[in-house]
Design goal:
The protein has about 280 residues and is an alpha/beta fold. It has 10 helices and 9 strands. α3 packs parallel to α4, α5 runs parallel beside α6 and α6 runs parallel beside α7. The structure holds 1,3-dihydroxyacetonephosphate.
């Protein structure tokens, strides 16, 4: 069943667990996410990033996910991840996405609020939910404290935009971490005290399980995973090629190896997000 973001996240924040948002860019990734979530009876978010438009046309993503979700035993959110352009938001809504993320976090506060309000104005009338980002999550290996979310700004941002979920910067980065990641849990707690909407952590790959388990009760209801799925998919293909590869190796065999490895990643994260059995 296909649903919007609040349908799964409000319960998650209240219930003290998080729902995984796993990035997809082809049929195998969609299949892996739905299989992992289905096996563990967990709600799940299929996240498709604007940057993957070259891999998977947006109308095809929506057609595939909506069709496959009909046969899934769990609630599935079809979410546009990190849209910098309102045009992508319009395309996703038109294609049948149930949720979108507008990422105005590179802009100063007022501009971020303005672009986020525009996204809400496009999405709400169509029944589509909106996530926004305040503070910045980089791709630099190490989080920059000066880009962390300011708790007072978070309150103002929520009041003026009314988004359904807020991505915050408290120590995570996209991609691989240089050194051991840390989270500013005290800041997260301060944000969560006055922002009652579900909070989102991007850059989930590689964050130690114990830190994630501490962050979830502080209001984190959505956790994004991309890099680790890709790494484990690629590793499985590499291992297959070095053990059994020959001139007859078929592409579809490799895809199955990658898909199975990604199911394992999805299930591992669902287990420690605490969402297994919550569908
Ligand atoms: P990772 O690639 O670090 O897992 O981050 C995923 C993400 O935040 C997608 O928006």
């Amino acid at each position: 069943m296909i649903v919007d973001l609040p349908s799964v996240l409000v319960k998650a924040r209240r219930g003290g667990y998080a729902v995984g948002a796993f990035n997809v860019y082809n049929l195998e990734t969609v299949d892996a996410v739905l299989a992992g979530a289905g096996e563990l009876r967990s709600p799940v978010i299929i996240a498709f990033g604007e940057r993957y438009l070259k891999n998977f046309p947006i109308r095809a993503v929506a057609a595939v996910v909506r069709t496959m979700a009909q046969d899934s035993p769990v609630p599935v959110v079809l979410h546009l991840d990190h849209a910098n352009r309102l045009e992508s938001i319009e395309q996703a809504i038109g294609a049948g996405f149930t949720s979108v993320m507008i990422d105005g976090s590179k802009n100063p506060l007022e501009e971020n609020i303005a672009v986020t309000k525009e996204a809400v104005a496009l999405a709400r009338p169509k029944g589509v939910s909106v996530e926004a980002e305040l503070g910045r999550i980089t791709r630099t290996g190490v989080a920059a404290e000066d880009l962390f979310t300011d708790p007072a700004e978070a309150v103002e941002f929520m009041k003026r935009t009314g988004v359904d979920a807020l991505a915050v910067s408290v120590g995570t980065v996209h991609g691989l971490y240089k050194g051991k990641p840390t989270l500013d849990l005290e800041r997260l707690a301060r944000i969560a005290m006055d922002v009652h909407a579900p909070l989102v952590l991007h850059g989930g790959s590689g964050v130690p399980e114990d830190l994630i388990r501490k962050a979830i009760p502080l209001g984190v209801a959505k956790l994004n995973i991309n890099t680790e799925m890709s790494i484990e998919g690629v590793n499985a293909v590499r291992a297959f090629l070095s053990a059994k590869g020959n001139e007859n190796t078929r592409l579809e065999e490799l895809m199955v190896e990658a898909r199975n490895a990604m199911v394992g990643v999805v299930k591992r994260y669902i287990e420690f997000f605490g969402s297994a059995g919550k569908a």
